[in-house]
Amino acid sequence: MQIKVITPDKQVFEGEISQAKFPGTTGGFEILKGHAPLISTLGRGEIFLNTLKDGKKTFQVDGGVVEVLNDTIMVLVEKVVA
User: Fold this and answer.
1) 3-state SS record for the chain
2) Architecture label for domain 2-81
3) Which pLDDT tens digit goes with each residue over 6-35?
């Protein structure tokens, strides 16, 4: 699966992943290859990615939106908290 994590200021991450976990506003959820199309809001929390190149990556986010379509994930977040 391809993923892009973008803030209003910059692209935070782009790459190939096998798994992603998100902090949904009504609870956490996970995306794997072949997932049905989805649009969901994100709350404050951590995004966990299992990348094919670098292993695990995490990002602390402060709300946003995620879209899943044809094994491509687009994540638009307010900000990534350091």
Assistant:
1) CEEEEECCCCEEEEEEEEEEEEEECCEEEEEECCCCCEEEEEEEEEEEEEECCCEEEEEEEEEEEEEEECCEEEEEECCEEC
2) Sandwich (2.60)
3) 999 999 999 999 999 999 999 999 999 999
